[in-house]
Design brief:
584 residues; binds adenosine-5'-diphosphate; OB fold (Dihydrolipoamide Acetyltransferase, E2P); 35% helix; globular; Rossmann fold; Elongation Factor Tu (Ef-tu), domain 3; single chain
């Protein structure tokens, strides 16, 4: 047992810690606060403490636990709200009131609750690590697959169907290492990535029903993305849209020290949301990890790892998981604070030199993988990080380092938010490196999504160039074809890019409808350009009733849109033809 030598905020120095290991979990002080060893020099250990340290004094004891900070993985995760070190907040508040008391130990998974275990293996079968030995219906939306833990395997000698607590053995195997017990629950050290067989190049889009993402800057299942933006640009609304609409089996939402009241908003708001597809509460496929900024910084640091470990665990079951971290800037600030307390050599803007590698390691845990197990099972973990650069300045270290790693960048833009163009994602500066990867998926619809997308992007680029000229000489001085470009681009911006999150229908736009809308917009564009070449003025085009009709297509549910699509095509052609005849 060690003794505290010095306390500086969340960092504690302890002596007499012989035999300790890096990242070992310890109990600090008389109250037994949770901490983790982050530095070792001989018998001296530097410990970051996940709880408020005020009142703790030098000389108090430090106890080793002999194990690293680990997550509990098993039935009961889904629908729970945890703090950064996986303490169930709802359970705690039931026991001790709203404020989390120090030194309190409540296990992440309920020890009393019994779950109905349905075996998927029989006595005598051979199982290897990652195999599904049975399932538990955890919520209406999630079937929890019980996996043979990594490193375990052998011949099944006992199977125990029926009701069990998470600690009870459901399957016994006899392997090369002797008898081993498989329980409903397993644990995993959060800082270590969970193993898989093979990581593959992401090929399928994670559809989120937002046109600016799916159509223009798609994220793939197993991909990485960042959404940086200043205050009020729409990060939270966007991430909520992802949590609600993404075609993922599970969502892990890590609210990592965003302003306290905002996190409350998530905590209050999320449990009320309904899964739009099934009408069930969204929490039935969601795990929330909440760290408000009034919790100690070290817990924030841990929350990111806890979250990603849960994500990997569900991925290993063969699910598509979406993890959102809001915001990674707060996490980085926690790193900076702890690094400062350790008196490490600061890097850029005071962030530790290892900021870049920590961010990279985090996003590296995303992926589309072939899981462990003897069956062919695939799972994905998509990681989306919000970044909140101070003052919206993307040249600061967290933003620049993140951009070097992630493959999708949705650039929120203050100017667009100010103009109330939502989602305020700038189409000129955003990018996705998954366009080629997911092209095959879109091709299955028989349409050339990539070609259409390229055409629309080129139009928007052209608009931006022309806007520069307009600034100098005014719009009136532009020749008609150029004015037709501006008119068409405006149609694309208003009817495709803008999407109101709070509209009952347009909140979610299915991919078929996205394609249909894109095609109609481009049809309008082509006719508009032809008309301009034939000497028809944009002023005439603006009078066409079909412009209004196109503006209303957002409001049409998929079925109605399907019916209206052909008619809209016809009306575009007919009305432009009318202009030409009128002129002739
Ligand atoms: P941030 O989290 O970046 O500070 P929010 O997500 O809270 O910003 O968004 C600020 C406001 O912008 C919201 O309250 C909402 O009015 C508006 N907004 C953002 N995105 C959308 C959207 N897609 N549709 C409609 N309004 C939006």
């Amino acid at each position: 047992m060690g003794r505290i030598v010095r306390i500086t905020g969340p960092v504690v120095l302890a002596d007499g810690m012989k035999g300790s290991e890096m990242y070992e979990l310890v109990r600090v002080g008389e109250e037994g606060l949770m901490g983790e060893i982050i530095g070792l020099q001989g018998e001296r250990a530097t410990i970051q403490v996940y709880e408020e340290t005020s009142g703790v004094r030098p000389g108090e004891k430090v106890e080793r636990t002999g194990r690293p900070l680990s997550a509990e993985l098993g039935p009961g995760l889904v629908g729970t709200i945890y703090d950064g070190v996986q303490r169930p907040l709802t359970e705690i508040s039931k026991r001790v009131g709203e404020m989390v008391k120090r030194g309190i130990y409540v296990p992440a998974l309920d020890r009393e609750r019994k779950w109905e275990f349905e075996p998927r293996v029989k006595k005598g079968a051979e199982v290897v690590e990652g195999d599904v030995v049975g399932v538990v219906r955890e919520t209406e939306l999630v079937e929890h697959r019980i996996l043979v833990p990594p490193g375990v395997g052998g011949k099944v000698v006992e199977v125990s169907e029926g009701k069990h607590t998470v600690e009870e053995t459901v399957v016994r195997v006899e392997g090369p290492r002797g008898k081993e017990e498989i329980r409903l629950m397993q644990t995993w050290p959060v800082r270590r990535p969970r193993p898989y067989k093979e990581k593959l190049d992401p090929r399928e889009p994670l559809l989120i029903g937002q046109r600016i993402a799916d159509t223009f800057f798609p994220i793939a299942k197993g991909g990485t993305g960042a959404i940086p933006g200043g205050f009020g640009t729409g990060k939270t609304v966007f991430l909520h849209q992802v949590a609600k609409w993404a075609d993922a089996d599970l969502v892990v939402y890590v609210g990592c020290g965003e302003r306290g009241n905002e996190m409350c908003d998530v905590l209050v708001h999320f449990p009320e949301l309904k899964d739009p597809r099934t009408g069930r509460p969204l929490m039935e496929r969601t795990v929330l990890i909440a760290n408000t900024s009034n919790m100690p910084v070290a817990a924030r640091e841990a929350s990111v790892y806890t979250g990603i470990t849960l994500g990997e665990y569900f991925r290993d079951m063969g699910y598509d998981v979406a993890l959102m971290a809001d915001s990674t800037s707060r996490w980085a600030e926690a790193m900076r604070e702890i690094s400062g307390r350790l008196e490490e050599m600061p890097g850029e803007e005071g962030f530790p030199a290892y900021l870049a590698s920590r961010l990279a390691e985090f996003y590296e845990r995303a992926g589309w993988v072939k899981t462990l197990g003897s069956d062919e099972r695939y799972g994905s973990l998509t990681v989306l990080g919000a970044v909140s650069p101070p003052g919206g300045d993307l040249s600061e270290p967290v933003s620049t380092n993140t951009l070097r790693i992630v493959k999708v960048f949705w650039a929120l833009d203050t100017a667009l938010a100010y103009r109330r163009h939502f989602p305020a994602i700038n189409w000129l500066t955003s990018y996705s490196l998954y366009v080629d990867g997911v092209e095959g998926w879109w091709k299955k619809s028989g349409e050339d999504w990539k070609g259409l997308r390229t055409e629309a992007m080129a139009l928007l680029q052209r608009e931006a160039e022309l806007e520069e000229i307009v600034k100098l000489i005014g719009a009136d001085a532009l020749p008609e074809p150029e004015r037709a470009v501006l008119e068409s681009a405006r149609m694309v911006r208003e009817n495709l890019l803008q999407q109101f999150a709070f509209d009952e229908v347009d909140s979610y736009c299915p991919p078929e409808k996205q394609l249909g809308m894109l095609k109609l917009m481009l049809r309008f564009y082509r006719r508009c350009m032809e008309a301009a070449r034939d000497g028809i003025s944009v002023a005439e085009v603006r009078k066409l009733p079909v412009r209004e009709e196109l503006a209303r297509m957002k409001k049409l549910p998929l079925e109605e849109f399907r019916k209206a699509e052909k008619e809209l095509e016809r009306r575009i052609d007919e009305q432009f033809e009318g202009l030409r005849r009128g002129k002739g």
